[in-house]
Amino acid sequence: MASACTQEKEASQATQVTEAASPETPPAPAPADTAVQEVAEAPEADSAWEYPGPKPLKGAILPQKRVIAFYGNLLSKRMGILGELPPEQMLSKLDEEVANWEKADSLTPVQPALHAIVVTAQGSPGKGAKYRLRMTDKMIDDVLEIAKKRDAIVFLDVQIGRSTLQEELPRLTQYLQLPNVHLGVDAEFAMGETGVPGKRVGSFDAADLNYASGLLADLVKEHQLPPKLFIVHRFTQRMITNYKDIKLRPEVQVVMHMDGWGSPALKKDTYRRYIKNEPVQFTGFKLFYKNDTKKGHRLMTPAEILALEPKPLYIQYQ
User: Fold this and answer.
1) Residue 45: which residues within 8 A CB-CB, separation 6 or more?
2) Strand pairing class (314-317; 282-287)
3) Tally of CB atoms within 10 A around 30
4) Which of 299, 298, 302 is nearest to 315 (CA)?
5) What span, in angstroms and rounded, lies between the C-alpha atoms of 182 and 292?
6) Which residues pair with 253 in a beta bridge?
7) How far apart are CA 32 and CA 167, in angstroms?
8) pLDDT tens figures, 87-119
9) pLDDT in tens, 182-228
10) At the topology level of CATH, where does 51-317 sit?
């Protein structure tokens, strides 16, 4: 079915970063206590579990907290608020959004987050003709250092181009094994063997997502971590196939994230069609400071988003 929101997203964002790729073989993992500050443990989930899937392990973030995340890439001013502003200015703006959400819903504590694109889709083939560029470990380390200033959790987001999650995720496990580092995957830029980022919208199948959540679950068990958050971008029907086959695990909290831009009415319709009507576990909602407002529309307020059902527990600003 054609999307009502084949979304006026800027696929051109995929080509904005030109930083040299990191080595194919990453260095040995840094000890957790030197790489990043641990996040305070979340309260335990209520005994009466009201969400799909098994009750999560101790220390789960959702649904006890709502995550407010700033998204982007430190090396690009055009891919989101994370890299658009100098770090201190960006953190001050994040503080403002956190305060807005605390005021709108005083019963749900806010967990600040930085959501960094660490594999960026590219419009040209690049090394190995994979149409993707891996960021250096230094960029990831810089995000972790900035996050410490607000006790923020960190998401590593991947846009795989013609690569696969099986190729891209293992090199990130040195970070994903840290207790406050989580994962995001962007189906828009998952192009299979023949697609080119920016020419059409890509897709993931449940099997792809199950591989990723299985990797996260193994890390949780091996390192005795609290559950991982797993953000899945979506704004069209075909971006995610066989959603009913997505596995839910106590070690991983799956968030289906409405990632389309446009007017408030269009965004709410996209959320209803592809997030509410094809439920998995938890839900997310994205706000674009520029794209949502560039045609004269306004940015949706926390109160408007809280009126959605189900209420999103992951909010991302780009």
Assistant:
1) 55, 56, 60, 63, 64
2) parallel
3) 15
4) 302
5) 26
6) 229
7) 24
8) 999 999 999 999 999 999 999 999 999 999 999
9) 999 999 999 999 999 999 999 999 999 999 999 999 999 999 999 99
10) TIM Barrel (3.20.20)
Question: Who wins on pLDDT, 143 or 127?
Answer: 143
Question: Look-up: residue for tokens 């831009």?
Answer: 261
Which range has the worst mean pLDDT, 4-18, 135-149, 233-247?
4-18
Q: Write the single-letter amino acid at 102.
A: E
Selection from 281, 228, 237, 238 nearest residue 57 by Cα = 228
- pLDDT tens track for 59-98: 999 999 999 999 999 999 999 999 999 999 999 999 999 9
Give whole-number Cα distances, 67 to 5, 154, 255, 284, in Å. Answer: 25, 11, 11, 9
3-state secondary structure the chain: CCCCCCCCCCHHHHHCCCCCCCCCCCCCCCCHHHHCCCCCCCCCCCCCCCCCCCCCCCCCCCCCCEEEEEEEECCECCCCHHHHCCHHHHHHHHHHHHHHHHHHCCCCCEEEEEEEEEEEECCCCCHHHCCEEECCHHHHHHHHHHHHCCCCEEEEEECCECCCHHHHCHHHHHHHCCCCEEEEEEHHHECCCCCCECCECCCEEHHHHHHHHHHHHHHHHHHCCCCEEEEEEECCHHHEECHHHCCCECCEEEEEEECCCCCHHHHHHHHHHHHHCCCCCEEEEEECCCCCCCCCCCCCCHHHHHCCCCCCCEEEEC
What is the end-to-end Cα distance of the chain in Å, rounded? 27
Are 131 and 159 contacting, i.e. CB atoms less than 8 angstroms apart?
no
Residue boundaries of the structural domains of the chain: 51-317
Task: Give the type of residue at 161.
Answer: G
Mean pLDDT, the chain, rounded, equals 88
What CA–CA distance (Å, rounded) separates 238 from 298? 28
Question: What is the spatial distance between Cα 161 and Cα 120, in angstroms, rounded to a whole number?
Answer: 8
